[in-house]
Amino acid sequence: MLTPERLSLNTATVSKQWNLRQCVEGCQRHGFGGIAPWRDKLQEAGVDEGARMIRDAGLTVTGLCRGGWYTAEGSLTPAVLDDNKRAVDEAVAIGAACLVMVVGGLPPGSRDLAAARGLVAEGLARTLDYARAQAMPIAIEPLHPMYAADRACVNSLSQALDLCDQLGAGIGVAVDVYHVWWDPDLAGQIARAGSDRLLAFHICDWLVPTRDLLTDRGMMGDGVIDLPAIRAMLEAGGFNGLNEVEIFSAENWWKRDADEVLAEIVARGRTSC
Amino acid sequence: MLTPERLSLNTATVSKQWNLRQCVEGCQRHGFGGIAPWRDKLQEAGVDEGARMIRDAGLTVTGLCRGGWYTAEGSLTPAVLDDNKRAVDEAVAIGAACLVMVVGGLPPGSRDLAAARGLVAEGLARTLDYARAQAMPIAIEPLHPMYAADRACVNSLSQALDLCDQLGAGIGVAVDVYHVWWDPDLAGQIARAGSDRLLAFHICDWLVPTRDLLTDRGMMGDGVIDLPAIRAMLEAGGFNGLNEVEIFSAENWWKRDADEVLAEIVARGRTSC
């Protein structure tokens, strides 16, 4: 049972309907406690203006989505590293709790997952140096194994926490139920993370059947994820942040009136989380 | 580099084109060393007749697909347990190297993965008692995490091997590259399994993009899986069985002439495995 002030709206949930200003105003109208902008929405609004409107609305920023993609060019080019520095700067500008990292999959033409993972570790280390100096926490988001090739080659909490162990202070994880709900070691890894490294909690649901690998996420309660159980693991692990709702849904929620979507999120927070 | 006698045809690869007799004759025509029938094809042919035609063709049977589905009715009903006994009997009848187990996902209406996994462990124990008496090895096939809800709640080699540890002799794993290629601990878990528990090796490829969660597997070489590297892990672990080709492909290979499919498999064995 979540009241709306414990919810944060990830702007991807209404990415086809609203710009950042509309998202901020929607959060206020529906009583959300926070927001997590994607960078495209923030840049479109202008970073300073976006920061101002979020601050004026009194919303907590549960994260900025997203940095990463270290493998996109097959090496850590200046373009890749600079874009991640800009992401840190933007996260700082809006007072985000963390910068969420989708680390990238296999480089173009490669089948070498181990090499991709090495590149990611090195890239994260480079961004972390910059982020630490600005006290901006970096959150590795392990993505579901079905995205290992094309989005992120960090595919479990265990693997993400191994990276954190290796990289030291200032880096933790974003736990998205969609990516980790299946993990037999989920409770153990959340406990291992601990409050210092549990930086964000993303919620939605896994639909049966799932009709698209990327854009068929479900509204909380419409799928098979035991959301209260996973939230209890996070809270037992010391996480006390907001519950960030991130639903990619090309055929359903992205086609609806955004106010209807937010109203449904508020309702499901009470019944299904 | 695999020569055709090191290949086995899983009948699912041409399930829309051929019955068991056609599969057996196709294997002979293209020089395959083995075959792995699905139960529907075997039952359609008649188990005794199917066993005879495979034996007469001199084909190794790398596995029978499949037993399991312990969670289908929410408890271990006589129907579920008896069907698994029949699967063991059929595997024995055709001289299969193992009976492959797809264990089942969440029971209908359930969100309790831990309970489903408990049910699976108990079901496997029951079938194993029966299989041991007939010296038929049971192979748990961990399925990709994207099937946790609707097909199999055993989703990693680590989890499958924990079950094997718990259940004792007579049970091992079927390693299908499609399900495990992303696993950061793949080499370690294959080594952990060891030759006694590496019971089957299934190959295909992961396409980018993947357009369907179930029926968009690729032909070896068309995707991103490093097949020679994974085969080397198996062989280092003591596996010396055949390479079983299992490709679900509704929009491509299932639509082609089956002889063309087998010819392509033979070619890709030489170039891409």
Largest interface: A-B, 30 and 31 residues
Annotated CATH topology of chain A? TIM Barrel
State the CATH superfamily name of chain A: Divalent-metal-dependent TIM barrel enzymes
Work out the count of structural domains of chain A. 1
Q: Give a short account of the largest sheet of chain A.
A: 9 strands, parallel
Indicate the proportion of strand residues of chain A. 5-15%
Q: Helix fraction of chain A?
A: 40-55%
Number of separate helices of chain A: 10
Structural class of chain A: alpha/beta
Which H/E pattern describes the elements of chain A? EHEHHEEHEHEHEHHEHEH
The quaternary state of the protein chains shown equals: homodimer
Tell me, briefly, the overall form of chain A.
Answer: globular
How many angstroms does the end-to-end distance of chain A come to?
6 Å
Low-confidence stretches of chain A: none
Number of strands of chain A: 9
Strand line-up in the sheet with most strands of chain A:
3-2-1-9-8-7-6-5-4
CATH class of chain A: Alpha Beta
Q: What is the residue-averaged pLDDT of chain A?
A: 98
Give the C-alpha Rg of chain A: 17 Å
Report the CATH architecture of chain A.
Alpha-Beta Barrel
